[in-house]
Amino acid sequence: MRLGVNIDHIATIREARKTYEPDPIKGAIIARDAGADQITFHLREDRRHIQDSDVEKLRAVITEIPLNMEMAATEEMKQIATRIKPDRVTLVPEKREEITTEGGLDVVSMKEYLKEFIKELKNSGIDVATFIDPVEEQIKASLEVGADAVEIHTGEYANARSENKRFEELKRIKNAAVYGRSIGLKIFAGHGLTYTNVQPVAEIEEIEELNIGHSIIANAVFLGLDEAVRKMKKLINEARRKHT
User: Fold this and answer.
1) CATH numbers and ranges of domains, the chain
2) CB–CB of 152/177 below 8 Å?
């Protein structure tokens, strides 16, 4: 299983003081050297953390592993993506008032718009994933609009307050992953995953990649970023070995 490390929250700390440190580019390099298989970042419309200059620098520096750009399906973001050419774009819903992404993209209601939008990205040589809730209808629609992959939103699982709720959400994720793989999509997952809840998701063999940010960056305050990445990678690898 691949681990994509989301570096947004390094930029969040920087932007709290509108200064130059900590540098998310340096964070991306440390994460890469610690074993991250991908660097993920979200260029939001309000530029609350990652800035345009960060995107330029990331594309210049991160060449050995894939660069995954999360973004809203807007004309502005499409123009930036087709110019910068990340290895992958992940289309996410975005609201100015939200603290973090609150749910999956409603691909079903945007099918006609997304078909042309995704076509232009793929014509530029960029793979495309949609960030969706674990719902069969949204997965099928993602295939129909031309996505190469879906990233399953794991927030409901991560935020579950009871064992029963967590079990039900994990089952939803598993069923969604099985269905998505059966129709030919690559399956990724992420949102709210931590050292304490990641392993049950990592055990789902249809999921080939997890994207994790906040927990790794938060623990880096105490462990250092190198060790925080290595610890998450170790937990994922342990979970995967149960199926080999």
Assistant:
1) 2-241 (3.20.20.70)
2) yes
